[in-house]
Design goal:
129 residues; alpha+beta; five-stranded mixed sheet; 17% helix
């Protein structure tokens, strides 16, 4: 396979309203819409930000989870956690508050963002400055 990654991972988040969810991810979290089904009321779409692509699904034939999803993301630039939190907060994203230290590893901090359907994105990094 050479230098090419074997898989391209795109988590699927189950949402009630694809248009509203895509708008939230774009406006509040700085994602960009990559594509969506060609309907007045789309049933599936993809949004992306810096290599993280998510599929937002409401009524496609993809299997559906019964509970909200949780995605955990460690930042490549661990020092960027505070900056990312500030960006999301200034955009009006639903966060759980500023980054806080995790109880199981000293020096590791996290914060969470919730989407319109209760799906949670957890971001990890170093202590914000």
């Amino acid at each position: 396979m050479g230098d090419r990654d074997e898989f391209y991972l795109r988590p699927i988040l189950c949402v009630r309203d694809v248009s509203a969810s895509a708008e939230y991810f774009c406006e509040k979290l700085g994602f960009e819409r990559s594509w969506q089904s060609p309907d007045d009321e789309p049933i599936i779409a993809q949004v992306g930000r810096n290599g993280l692509d998510l599929i937002l699904d409401s009524k496609s034939s993809i299997p559906r989870a019964r509970t909200p999803s949780v995605l955990s993301m460690s930042l490549h630039d661990a020092d960027a956690l505070g900056t990312l939190y500030e960006e999301f907060s200034s955009r009006g994203a639903a966060t759980n508050g500023p980054p806080c230290e995790v109880p199981w590893q000293q020096g590791v901090f996290q914060f969470e963002v919730q989407d319109l359907d209760g799906n949670i994105l957890v971001f990890w990094g170093d202590k914000p400055r």
